[in-house]
Protein backbone atom coordinates (compact mmCIF):
# COMPACT_ATOMS: atom_id res chain seq x y z
CA UNK A 1 0.00 0.00 0.00
CA UNK A 2 1.23 3.48 -0.89
CA UNK A 3 2.04 5.61 2.18
CA UNK A 4 -0.47 8.23 0.96
CA UNK A 5 -3.29 5.71 0.63
CA UNK A 6 -5.61 5.03 3.50
CA UNK A 7 -7.34 1.84 4.50
CA UNK A 8 -11.02 1.46 3.69
CA UNK A 9 -13.04 2.98 6.51
CA UNK A 10 -10.35 5.53 7.39
CA UNK A 11 -11.50 8.75 9.03
CA UNK A 12 -10.28 12.19 8.00
CA UNK A 13 -9.53 14.55 10.87
CA UNK A 14 -9.15 17.51 8.55
CA UNK A 15 -10.76 18.53 5.31
CA UNK A 16 -10.88 21.54 3.05
CA UNK A 17 -14.36 22.66 1.99
CA UNK A 18 -14.63 24.77 -1.13
CA UNK A 19 -16.28 28.10 -0.24
CA UNK A 20 -15.62 29.96 -3.48
CA UNK A 21 -13.53 29.91 -6.63
CA UNK A 22 -10.01 28.92 -5.58
CA UNK A 23 -10.95 29.40 -1.88
CA UNK A 24 -11.19 26.69 0.79
CA UNK A 25 -12.00 26.61 4.50
CA UNK A 26 -10.33 24.20 6.93
CA UNK A 27 -12.58 21.97 8.98
CA UNK A 28 -11.06 19.86 11.75
CA UNK A 29 -12.35 17.05 13.91
CA UNK A 30 -14.79 14.18 13.93
CA UNK A 31 -18.57 14.38 14.02
CA UNK A 32 -20.83 12.39 16.35
CA UNK A 33 -21.44 9.68 13.73
CA UNK A 34 -17.67 9.18 13.28
CA UNK A 35 -17.35 7.84 16.84
CA UNK A 36 -17.82 4.07 16.88
CA UNK A 37 -17.72 2.29 20.23
CA UNK A 38 -14.54 0.22 20.40
CA UNK A 39 -12.56 2.38 17.94
CA UNK A 40 -9.10 3.35 19.22
CA UNK A 41 -7.31 6.51 18.11
CA UNK A 42 -3.52 6.57 18.38
CA UNK A 43 -2.57 10.20 18.95
CA UNK A 44 0.58 11.35 17.20
CA UNK A 45 3.13 12.85 17.24
CA UNK A 46 4.55 11.93 20.62
CA UNK A 47 5.98 14.55 22.95
CA UNK A 48 9.22 14.46 24.94
CA UNK A 49 8.82 16.10 28.34
CA UNK A 50 11.46 18.76 29.01
CA UNK A 51 12.72 20.28 32.22
CA UNK A 52 11.18 23.61 31.18
CA UNK A 53 7.76 21.94 30.70
CA UNK A 54 7.91 20.53 34.20
CA UNK A 55 9.24 23.57 36.05
CA UNK A 56 7.08 26.15 34.28
CA UNK A 57 3.85 24.18 34.45
CA UNK A 58 4.48 23.16 38.07
CA UNK A 59 4.97 26.79 39.06
CA UNK A 60 2.08 28.10 36.92
CA UNK A 61 -0.20 25.60 38.68
CA UNK A 62 1.30 26.61 42.04
CA UNK A 63 2.52 23.06 42.59
CA UNK A 64 5.80 23.92 44.28
CA UNK A 65 6.44 20.49 45.78
CA UNK A 66 10.23 20.07 45.81
CA UNK A 67 10.01 16.65 44.13
CA UNK A 68 9.08 18.54 40.94
CA UNK A 69 11.38 21.57 41.06
CA UNK A 70 14.34 20.86 43.38
CA UNK A 71 16.97 18.45 42.02
CA UNK A 72 18.79 18.05 45.35
CA UNK A 73 15.57 17.19 47.18
CA UNK A 74 14.47 14.84 44.37
CA UNK A 75 17.77 12.91 44.57
CA UNK A 76 16.76 11.86 48.10
CA UNK A 77 13.37 10.46 47.07
CA UNK A 78 12.68 6.89 46.01
CA UNK A 79 12.85 8.10 42.38
CA UNK A 80 16.34 9.60 42.74
CA UNK A 81 15.54 12.35 40.25
CA UNK A 82 13.01 15.10 39.57
CA UNK A 83 9.53 13.69 39.12
CA UNK A 84 7.39 15.33 36.43
CA UNK A 85 4.25 16.79 38.00
CA UNK A 86 1.12 14.79 37.25
CA UNK A 87 -0.49 18.06 36.13
CA UNK A 88 2.15 18.30 33.39
CA UNK A 89 1.61 14.69 32.31
CA UNK A 90 -2.18 15.14 32.36
CA UNK A 91 -1.95 18.33 30.28
CA UNK A 92 0.35 16.86 27.64
CA UNK A 93 -1.65 13.64 27.24
CA UNK A 94 -4.94 15.55 27.25
CA UNK A 95 -3.68 18.00 24.66
CA UNK A 96 -2.42 15.23 22.41
CA UNK A 97 -5.87 13.62 22.35
CA UNK A 98 -7.94 16.67 21.40
CA UNK A 99 -7.51 16.77 17.61
CA UNK A 100 -8.95 13.29 17.11
CA UNK A 101 -11.52 13.29 19.89
CA UNK A 102 -13.06 16.62 20.75
CA UNK A 103 -11.96 19.10 18.08
CA UNK A 104 -15.66 19.70 17.34
CA UNK A 105 -16.85 19.52 20.94
CA UNK A 106 -19.22 22.10 22.33
CA UNK A 107 -18.05 21.50 25.89
CA UNK A 108 -15.93 19.20 28.00
CA UNK A 109 -18.23 17.51 30.52
CA UNK A 110 -15.64 16.02 32.83
CA UNK A 111 -13.01 13.43 33.64
CA UNK A 112 -13.56 10.24 35.61
CA UNK A 113 -11.37 7.42 36.88
CA UNK A 114 -8.11 9.37 36.61
CA UNK A 115 -5.23 7.03 37.47
CA UNK A 116 -1.53 7.84 37.70
CA UNK A 117 0.03 4.41 37.29
CA UNK A 118 3.73 5.08 36.61
CA UNK A 119 6.08 8.01 37.22
CA UNK A 120 7.16 10.30 34.39
CA UNK A 121 10.61 11.88 34.28
CA UNK A 122 12.21 14.66 32.26
CA UNK A 123 13.27 13.11 28.95
CA UNK A 124 10.41 10.60 28.77
CA UNK A 125 8.54 10.66 25.47
CA UNK A 126 4.78 10.36 25.85
CA UNK A 127 2.19 9.05 23.43
CA UNK A 128 -1.54 8.70 23.89
CA UNK A 129 -4.43 6.63 22.66
CA UNK A 130 -8.17 6.94 23.21
CA UNK A 131 -10.87 4.30 22.93
CA UNK A 132 -14.49 5.27 22.32
CA UNK A 133 -16.40 3.59 25.17
CA UNK A 134 -19.83 5.24 25.07
CA UNK A 135 -21.96 7.62 23.05
CA UNK A 136 -25.57 8.70 23.17
CA UNK A 137 -27.83 11.56 22.18
CA UNK A 138 -28.16 14.11 24.98
CA UNK A 139 -31.33 13.74 27.02
CA UNK A 140 -31.46 17.47 27.82
CA UNK A 141 -29.94 19.14 24.74
CA UNK A 142 -31.73 18.33 21.47
CA UNK A 143 -29.38 18.08 18.51
CA UNK A 144 -26.40 17.27 20.69
CA UNK A 145 -24.77 14.08 21.94
CA UNK A 146 -22.34 12.88 24.58
CA UNK A 147 -19.22 10.89 23.67
CA UNK A 148 -17.01 9.21 26.29
CA UNK A 149 -13.46 8.07 25.60
CA UNK A 150 -10.91 6.22 27.73
CA UNK A 151 -7.49 7.79 27.22
CA UNK A 152 -4.13 6.28 28.12
CA UNK A 153 -0.82 8.09 28.33
CA UNK A 154 2.03 5.79 27.32
CA UNK A 155 5.78 6.08 27.59
CA UNK A 156 7.87 5.24 24.52
CA UNK A 157 8.40 1.71 25.88
CA UNK A 158 4.61 1.15 25.96
CA UNK A 159 4.24 1.49 29.74
CA UNK A 160 1.00 3.19 30.74
CA UNK A 161 1.66 6.20 32.96
CA UNK A 162 -1.83 7.76 33.06
CA UNK A 163 -5.40 6.78 32.25
CA UNK A 164 -8.74 8.51 32.48
CA UNK A 165 -12.22 8.67 30.99
CA UNK A 166 -13.45 11.92 29.49
CA UNK A 167 -16.90 12.90 28.26
CA UNK A 168 -17.69 15.76 25.93
CA UNK A 169 -20.75 17.28 24.29
CA UNK A 170 -20.84 17.36 20.48
CA UNK A 171 -23.39 18.33 17.84
CA UNK A 172 -25.25 15.44 16.25
CA UNK A 173 -24.37 15.06 12.58
CA UNK A 174 -28.02 14.71 11.59
CA UNK A 175 -30.41 16.39 13.96
CA UNK A 176 -33.59 14.27 14.25
CA UNK A 177 -36.80 15.98 13.24
CA UNK A 178 -39.08 16.86 16.15
Automatic annotation (TrEMBL):
InterPro entries: HotDog_dom_sf, MaoC-like_dom, MCH/BMMD. Pfam families: MaoC_dehydratas. It comes from the Bacteria. Residues 37-149 form the MaoC-like domain. SUPFAM superfamilies: Thioesterase/thiol ester dehydrase-isomerase. PANTHER family: BETA-METHYLMALYL-COA DEHYDRATASE, MONOAMINE OXIDASE-RELATED. This is MaoC family dehydratase. It comes from Pseudomonas proteolytica.
